Each structure stands twice: as structure tokens, then as C-alpha cells.
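Query form — protein Heme-binding protein

QUESTION: What is the three-dimensional structure of this chain?
INPUT:
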Amino acid sequence: MKKSSVVAAVASAAVLTGGITVAANAVQPAAPAAPAAVRAVDVQAAEGTTVAQNRITATASAKAVQAALEKCVADKLPFVTVALVDRFGTVQALLRGDNAAEHTIEAAKQKAYTAAAFGAPTSELAKRIQSPGPSIADLPGTLFLAGGVPLKVNGASVAGIGVGGAPDGALDEACAAAGAEAIAH
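ANSWER: The C-alpha cells for Heme-binding protein are given below.
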């Protein structure tokens, strides 16, 4: 085959494939249809559809954390933080004592959440952590040290109060219990 025939064949192939590529690129798929407008749906409150939730009021939460801190101050423990959270761990009230270190804030919140989530004092929950392997103590946001007390309404845990910063968890828990008692009646 002559060199000129090869060049002509290659040129023809290039023109042909180029033309096919241009033609293929010219055919664009149809644009997707715009999604239908989303509107709010009114769900009727009914058994099987919604859940009624109890929550500690802001006033009661403030009273509880104040009472817990007052107990700690009376016990010469002004360096603690007290937190009250709902059962999902959302802070309802937090009070940091004079000279309380920053780590006490997170400890108080985590103890309060652990007590609320499991419906038991964290001192009791800490006794259940015995295995050397993974356990519930590995759950994010929880702290299985004494100092958290659940708050219940009709037997259901709705919140927790936690204290962090005392040199012994039993001291934290005594303050948390005093806060819980302040709103129990």
C-alpha cells in the first residue's frame, strides 16, 4: 500500500470519527423534570402517629441547678458545674461554679445525659460496666461516673441532672440529688 493511500485512509477515518463525535455531542439528553413543589404536611396528633413528651420547664431547671450548686458550695465544693439536660441530651440549664475548670462543663452534661438516657443514677450504671471489651460506656456523649441523677415523670425518664468537678463522684451525686429534690415536690 502506498504511503499516500495510508495517509488518505487515516484522514478519512479521522473525519468520519470526528463527524460521529460531533453528531453524538449534538444530541443532548433531555433535562430532568423539575421536582414537584414540596409543601408542609399537617399530621394529626393521635395515638400511633405522634408522641406526647414531658419536659422540665426552664424555671424548674434553673431552680434545680441552683439548688445543686448551693449544696456543693455548702459542702465546700464551689468548683463544680451543674447541668440539666432533656432525655435527648439537649442542655436546659447549666450553672458553672466559681473556679470550676472547663472540663467540668462537659462532665456535668455527659453525666446528666447518661442518667436521662438510661433512667438510672450514673453511680448505679457505673457498676454495670465490668467487661474489658466494648460496652455501653463507649457510647458517644455518655459518662459512666457517679454524679448524674435521672428526673422522671410517671416513671419515665424525661431529663437528667449532672454534676462534675468534685474530687469524688459520690459528692457530685449528692449535689445532683439535692437539685433533683428541689423540684420533686
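ADDITIONAL NOTE: The CA atoms of residues 64 and 183 lie 6 Å apart.
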